[in-house]
């Protein structure tokens, strides 16, 4: 907080408009626009605009179809879907990435000048229009053409090229997976495969899902059906949006519940099915308030950010326009500033403090970490100074629990407070400047995302008030405001260097640094005492950590990386349904600092608290505890890692010393030396023979489900929080064990094929329930089980296992040491996992081996394998595979 002279007065101003402030008096003298004493912090209340208007990557989303030559102009649209022929981008397998770039530059020429971004969907078959098969891929059979290994390998290679061309292209908003099936919708309807389904087979889901994950680090990826690609963190394109005949699709999207981090989009289909609540056309939907509200209900429940086809409405029809305005105001994000406080008088070279409260009144988040800028404007509107806040707008979430009767979310959106402390250059001339806020597109660092406030200047800035540099402000007259809807002056650039504004400041001050988040429930953290992970639908990672305090429960974040020693801004995301709770925060085991956490209004409502921490260079620990009472529940922490550039563009160093450290008949374990990065390494991507197979947050990885007696080659890449990826390491080769002439007997490798918890690779799970996360969930190819003195699952093992000597449980724990927290039953023997194996569970995946004969297991009639977790412990484990060897 700024230092305040006791003679300074705190000003609370209403909406800053010319009429309201023409007679503003300072110092109680009765003299207009005359400062008597140095002006202290000024607080202003802002008003929400009633306009609907364009904003990037949200709202009505027209389509450019196969034979369209241009993007049609629509009143509320800055985002357009683009259907693209496969053969426009690649005909022969030898075609280069440059061919894709050349096509993009031609097809999208000039769209940056209109602030337009595209959503590409590449298609091979577009019924009624044509088929666009590349050379060398067999086709002609409408079913079997989609099942060949040639197609699979060609698509994987092609996706890699798309990533090189589009992952850093600012014209691309996000990617629709496309490619496979009719219209690129991942189905072959009305035809069916031999198993009676028309959906993309699991083997293709795995191949394409892995390829898109490896190719796109900076762009979100969407898939057509919520029941496909369930092992991948993708968004959904519901192309039968709100259609009663496909309510299952919408409900599946709601159940998938990935909207906080992944984009949901879609298309209101008017060419089939029950149109009774859609009116049969865009005008039929938007011209009826009941039809409009019906679609809005689906938007709010699915947290959808953009919609196509319905965008083709008649804007000149007043009743249709009213419906379009109502829908645009809730479709996607809508950021409203409620209040702002700023320093009224700043000496050159001194600190200007700025704080504002913002709430998201729309249906979805903004999904990219675009920077928020404060600027001081000259009297002619040009920028005299600018600097960046250290905040992450992806955390400005909408409400949850839509109520169609009250037309509101049951859980209101959180109020987000953003603070900045900016060092004003000593050379800035004395005078009165207008303080304005804006959200920038990093492609050119121009104002782009706009706040929905009546305070608005053409060009994308929201004026807050007048600041005096070296003097009191001469007045608080902000002049006239512009219309949000009618301003079409915004744009972005295809080339962008480093941010050229202020890079100084602390406590959330200016600079183009990067914010790195650490989830409370991460397996890298240490939970002790009664601290436990629990599901949290409103939390960023879908989970939170509670029961910190009172019973000795503590939560320690590990691996908090700082490039240099110094003071950093830490934002704690927490939940508190009580009055203020407190917690003690200790950095690197040092003296604790007490923090007070105000109520957030409920245990499912997240809030944030900012504080400063002194970190050492390298990895640090931050521990939360409370010896005398309960702390709040914790969602995550976000570290402002600072830096003077406009974003982290430096890739980590290449992983070194990659080696095979263990093998079984079906798995190979790798280890390597840690990479370094200017900000911090967040994980490693592992590739088998050039194909992505998984990610590790440690310097070890085990590849499972392999064939016995077979050699495999591996490389590893490091990545950071900004999505920068290193070059591949040197390759290393490992060979699986011969397996005694046979292969492992896999009970389940939890790849959701068969689907958990109905069946497994050996037969049938007899039950799975009682966990904090119900029957457990499949997460990144492993079964995640959250338990709190409850939970069990079992599988019938009806065959003899006499040919096998060991039971292998590949497992890791959130804290480590979970081997004594649950019992395992097999072949008439019941023991804890630790007693069965004499081994321990760690925070990295590990094969726990159980000698069947030594433990007296009846291998001829094993009966049922069970695991039970009702022994007075709380924690989280991930089981990657259960097998007999």
Automatic annotation (TrEMBL):
Keyword Hydrolase recorded: yes
InterPro entries registered for this protein in UniProt: CBM13-like, CBM6, DUF4832, FN3_dom, FN3_sf, Galactose-bd-like_sf, Ig-like_fold
Keywords, sorted A to Z: Carbohydrate metabolism, Glycosidase, Hydrolase, Polysaccharide degradation, Signal
Matches recorded under SMART domains: FN3 (SM00060)
GO biological process: polysaccharide catabolic process
Listed CDD domains: CBM35_galactosidase-like (cd04081), FN3 (cd00063)
Protein name: DUF4832 domain-containing protein
Organism this protein belongs to: Cohnella candidum
């Amino acid at each position: 907080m700024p230092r305040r002279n006791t003679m300074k007065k705190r000003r609370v101003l209403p909406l800053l408009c010319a009429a309201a402030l023409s007679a503003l008096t300072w110092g109680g003298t009765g003299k207009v626009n005359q400062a008597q004493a140095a002006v202290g912090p000024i607080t202003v209340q802002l008003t929400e605009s009633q306009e609907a208007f364009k904003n990037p990557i949200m709202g009505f989303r027209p389509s450019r179809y196969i034979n369209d030559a241009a993007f049609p102009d629509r009143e509320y649209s800055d985002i357009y879907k683009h259907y693209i022929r496969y053969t426009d981008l690649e005909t022969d397998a030898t075609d280069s990435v440059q061919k894709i770039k050349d096509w993009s530059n031609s097809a999208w020429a000039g769209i940056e000048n209109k602030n337009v971004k595209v959503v590409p969907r590449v298609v091979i078959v577009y019924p009624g229009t044509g088929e666009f098969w590349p050379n060398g891929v067999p086709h002609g059979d409408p079913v079997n053409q989609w099942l060949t290994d040639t197609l699979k390998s060609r698509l994987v290679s092609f996706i890699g090229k798309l990533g090189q061309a589009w992952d850093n292209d600012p014209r691309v908003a996000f990617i629709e997976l496309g490619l496979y099936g009719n219209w690129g919708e991942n189905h072959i309807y009305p035809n069916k495969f031999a198993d009676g389904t028309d959906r993309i087979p699991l083997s293709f889901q795995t191949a394409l899902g892995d390829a898109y994950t490896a190719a796109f680090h900076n762009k979100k990826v969407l898939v057509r059906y919520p029941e496909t690609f369930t092992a991948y963190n993708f968004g959904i394109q519901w192309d039968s949006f709100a259609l009663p005949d496909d309510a299952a699709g919408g409900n599946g999207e709601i159940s998938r519940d990935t909207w906080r981090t992944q984009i949901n989009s879609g298309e209101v289909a008017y060419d089939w099915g029950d149109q009774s609540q859609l009116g049969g056309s865009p005008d039929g939907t938007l011209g009826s308030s009941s039809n409009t509200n019906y679609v809005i209900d689906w938007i709010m429940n699915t947290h959808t950010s953009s919609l196509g086809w319905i965008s083709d409405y008649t804007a000149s029809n007043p009743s249709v326009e009213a419906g379009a305005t109502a829908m645009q105001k809730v479709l996607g994000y809508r950021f409203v500033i409620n209040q702002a406080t700023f320093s009224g008088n700043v000496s050159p070279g001194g600190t200007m403090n700025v704080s504002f409260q913002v709430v998201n009144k729309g249906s979805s988040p903004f999904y990219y970490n675009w920077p928020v800028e404060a600027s001081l404007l000259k009297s002619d509107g040009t920028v005299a100074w600018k600097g960046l806040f250290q905040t992450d707008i992806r955390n400005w979430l909408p409400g949850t629990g839509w109520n169609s009767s009250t037309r509101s979310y049951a859980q209101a959106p959180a109020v987000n407070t953003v603070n900045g402390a900016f060092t004003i250059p000593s050379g800035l001339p004395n005078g009165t400047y207008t303080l304005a806020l804006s959200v920038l597109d990093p492609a050119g660092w121009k104002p782009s995302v706009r706040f929905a406030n009546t305070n608005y200047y053409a060009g994308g800035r929201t004026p807050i008030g007048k600041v005096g540099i070296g003097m009191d402000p001469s007045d608080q007259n902000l002049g006239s405001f512009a219309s949000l809807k009618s301003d079409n002056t915004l744009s972005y650039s295809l080339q962008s260097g480093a941010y050229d504004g202020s890079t100084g400041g602390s406590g959330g001050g200016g600079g183009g640094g990067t914010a790195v988040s650490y989830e409370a429930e991460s397996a890298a953290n240490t939970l002790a005492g009664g601290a436990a992970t629990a599901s949290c639908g409103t939390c960023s990672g879908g989970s939170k950590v509670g029961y910190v305090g009172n019973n000795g429960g503590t939560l320690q974040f590990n691996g908090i990386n700082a490039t240099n020693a110094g003071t950093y801004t830490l934002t704690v995301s927490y939940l508190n349904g009580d009055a203020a709770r407190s917690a003690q925060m200790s950095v690197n085991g040092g003296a604790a600092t007490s923090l007070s956490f105000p109520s957030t209004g409920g245990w499912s409502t997240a809030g944030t608290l900012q504080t400063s921490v002194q970190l050492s260079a390298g990895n640090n620990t931050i521990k939360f505890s409370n010896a005398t009472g309960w702390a709040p529940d914790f969602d995550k922490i976000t570290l402002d890692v600072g830096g003077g550039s406009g974003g982290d563009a430096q890739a980590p160093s290449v992983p070194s010393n990659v080696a095979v450290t263990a093998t079984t008949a079906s798995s190979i374990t790798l280890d390597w030396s840690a990479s370094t990065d200017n900000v911090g390494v967040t994980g490693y991507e592992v590739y088998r023979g050039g194909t992505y197979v998984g990610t590790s947050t440690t310097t070890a990885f085990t590849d499972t489900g392999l064939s016995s007696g077979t050699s495999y080659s591996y490389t590893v890449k490091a990545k950071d929080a900004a999505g920068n990826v290193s070059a591949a390491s040197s390759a290393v080769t490992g060979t699986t064990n011969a397996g005694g002439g046979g292969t492992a007997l896999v009970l389940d490798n939890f790849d959701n094929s068969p689907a958990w918890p109905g069946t497994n690779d050996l037969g049938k799970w007899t039950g799975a329930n009682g966990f904090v996360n119900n029957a457990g969930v499949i997460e990144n190819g492993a079964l995640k089980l959250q338990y709190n003195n409850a939970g069990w699952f079992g599988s019938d093992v009806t065959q003899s296992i006499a040919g096998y000597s060991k039971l292998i449980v590949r497992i890791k724990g959130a804290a480590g040491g979970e081997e004594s927290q649950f019992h395992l039953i097999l072949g008439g023997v019941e023991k804890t996992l630790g007693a069965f194996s004499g081994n321990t569970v760690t925070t990295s995946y590990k094969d726990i081996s159980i000698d069947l004969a030594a433990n007296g297991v009846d291998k001829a009639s094993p009966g049922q394998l069970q695991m039970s977790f009702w022994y007075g412990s709380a924690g989280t484990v991930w089981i990657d595979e259960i097998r007999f060897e």
